[in-house]
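It would be a great kindness if you could assist me with a short task in structural biology. The matter concerns a single protein, recorded as an amino acid sequence and a row of backbone structure tokens. Could you please explain, in whatever detail you think fit, how the structure tokens follow from the sequence? Thank you for your consideration; the sequence and its tokens are set out here:
___
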Amino acid sequence: MYSLILIFLIIAFTLALLPQKAHAAAYSFLDITASISGSGGSFSLKGGNAPEGITVTPDNDMTETVTGADGAIMHSLMEQGRTGTVTITLLKTSPVNAQLQQLINSQSRTSATWGDNVISIRDVVRGDDLTISQAAFVKQSDVNYAASGGTTAWTFRGRLSAVVLGAGLSR
């Protein structure tokens, strides 16, 4: 009886030491949720997205580096505010273009409603969670008419209130 238990424990211990099979990492835009909420409307930013999708770009460097006369370096953590730019690139035929156009038309009537949007972007599989608050349209989107429908890009600038990049779900 004890020998069976001992054999079982040896096998279990040996299996535990074997390298685990690695899983391939995967990403899909289908796992992304994105929305905007502000004076004049709240809606999804998904639907007819171009391959460029959604890009979030911080505006400021977080460090300043000074090199001394002897070659030593010093880094300074800069707290210049965590602002950033969000670009949503849509197909020309996306219905989200009309929603964003209505939103910019509504908000540009008065400064009381300007820059009051919140953009939320989440990757529900990887665990990413970004919130951009106090977001304002940078400008009216460019409008192109060509042989190919192309894309329409909408750009916002705001405060990167929360940025969490997840490690993904384990299988």
The mean pLDDT is 88. The helical segments are 2-17, 96-107. The chain is about 15% helix and 40% strand.
